[in-house]
Specification:
Blueprint lengths: L2 H7 L23 E2 L10 H11 L11 H21 L6 E4 L2 H15 L6 E5 L4 H12 L3 E5 L9 H7 L4 E5 L13 H10 L3 E5 L11 H4 L3 E5 L10 E5 L26 H39 L3 E4 L9 E6 L4 H7 L3 E2 L15 H5 L4 H4 L2 E5 L6 H21 L3
Parallel strand pairs: 1-11, 3-4, 3-5, 5-6, 6-7
Antiparallel strand pairs: 2-8, 7-8, 9-10, 10-12
Bound molecules: pyridoxal-5'-phosphate.
């Protein structure tokens, strides 16, 4: 069946599809409330609607010169403008990738290789995502020098520590915009000032900050930044790397057809790129209203838990943190036991990638949280589609299950 007969059989997928109207209760699947928006977010209906034609009628290769190709290329151009608009940058500064893991690898490894003649030292910190930490470990095995700065008890990096770690051989530093586990926001512009003063390139894994916090790359002062669509209500498997215009670009990790200025060859994921563009435009329009609404819900949840439960500890910075993040330790309640007891809410212990392991989160360990307490940490990640009613349901259930578990195993 070709795309045309497919559409013929499924007329509802063209034009105003079933998803065009107000967001459905995307986050409720089998009556489970979704509060794990740092792991991934539901696709916004507007994003899905924008993508569908590029999975069906407009299936062309954006590099082809016939009309199928130019239709796809026009869509990619539009999406690149939407991304650039959110980042306050120009379209030449955006390279599409398969997501933030690839963007992080491309930035760190690509710059390390490109600047090898200038030095071999890279600075990062212990609370980064594994896409950064493991890339730096791999480079260390190839002979690069790596420094992992400590973070404070809130998970924050100190610009003074950054400055003190710079050596004549330092070519790159990488510090995340906001932490995906505890939500702490790093002082990115202050770090950028230090980097610029010493002529060191500055990459930021900005996945959790972009679309939620100020997303203007010029104002942040970074040279490279990673983002991914699925953390901002777009599809999985598509992201971008912002590369400031006047720096020499990272070496490509792939060889191929020369797409994306040769920095990231490979046939463009047109539908994904369209989805990323639509998600960026929505995020920009939604930012202020969304930020306040989500942080108010988050604070309500925290208050309700605080009033009814003793011995709960907030992880991360009390003010400088993501609007939807609430990372709490429930002393003497193992997080996996709590998770298993919760029937109506999808949340995480530590980071999503660690959900199978019972070792304490590396971020909490880096913050100096004692191991025993770290094993009781739960991450609530509220997002655009959560409601006050859901917060009530979740708070009641958490209180009930924590009390039950504590009664079962006192001390
Ligand atoms: C989710 C996430 C990533 C990985 O992004 P993918 O697109 O899933 O590869 C990297 N860094 C941070 C901070 C994240 O939250």
């Amino acid at each position: 069946m070709n795309a045309f007969s497919y559409i013929h059989c499924h007329p509802e997928i063209v034009g105003r599809g079933p998803c065009a109207s107000p967001p459905q209760k995307d986050q409720i699947v089998n009556n489970i409330i979704y509060m794990d928006n740092h792991a991934t977010t539901p696709i916004a209906p507007e994003v899905l609607e924008a993508m569908i034609p590029y999975l069906t009628t407009h299936f062309g290769n954006a590099s082809s010169t016939h009309s199928f190709g130019t239709t796809a290329k026009d869509a990619v151009d539009k999406a690149r403008h939407q991304v650039a608009d959110l980042l306050g940058c120009s379209v030449e500064e955006i390279v599409f990738t398969s997501g933030a893991t690839e963007s992080d690898n491309l930035a760190i490894r690509g710059i390390a290789y490109a600047r090898r003649d200038n030095g071999n030292h890279i600075i990062t910190n212990t609370a980064e995502h594994h896409a950064i930490l493991d890339t730096c470990h791999a480079l260390a095995a190839e002979g690069f020098e790596t420094t992992y700065l400590p973070v404070d008890k809130y998970g924050m990096v100190s610009p003074d520590d950054v400055e003190a770690a710079i050596t004549p051989k330092t070519v790159l530093m990488s510090f995340m915009y906001a932490n995906n586990e505890v939500g702490t926001i790093n002082p990115i512009s202050d770090i950028a000032t230090v980097a610029a003063k010493h002529g060191v390139l500055f990459h930021s894994d900005a996945v959790q900050g972009i679309g939620q916090l100020s997303s203007d790359m010029e104002r942040l002062g970074v040279d490279l930044a990673s983002l991914t669509a699925h953390k901002i209500y777009g599809p999985k498997g598509i992201g971008a790397l912002y590369i400031r215009r006047n720096i020499s670009p990272p070496h490509s990790l792939f060889h191929g057809g020369g797409q994306e200025l040769g920095v990231r060859p490979g046939t463009l994921n047109v539908a994904g790129i369209v989805g990323l563009g639509a998600a960026c435009e929505l995020a920009k329009n939604y930012m202020e209203q969304g930020k306040n609404g989500v942080s108010a819900l988050r604070d309500t949840l925290h208050q309700k838990l605080n009033v009814c439960l003793e011995d709960i500890h907030l992880n991360g910075h009390p003010e400088q943190r993501l609007p939807g993040n609430l990372n709490l330790c429930f002393a003497s309640v193992q997080s996996h036991a709590l998770l298993m007891g919760l029937k109506s809410v999808a949340i995480s212990t530590g980071s999503a990638c660690d959900s199978e392991s019972v070792t304490a989160s590396h971020v909490l360990v880096a913050m100096g949280v004692p191991n025993e307490l770290a094993l009781t940490a739960i991450r609530f990640g509220l997002g655009r589609y959560n409601t006050a009613e859901e917060v009530d349901i979740v708070a009641d259930e958490v209180i009930r299950v924590v009390n039950r578990l504590r009664a079962l195993a006192p001390e």
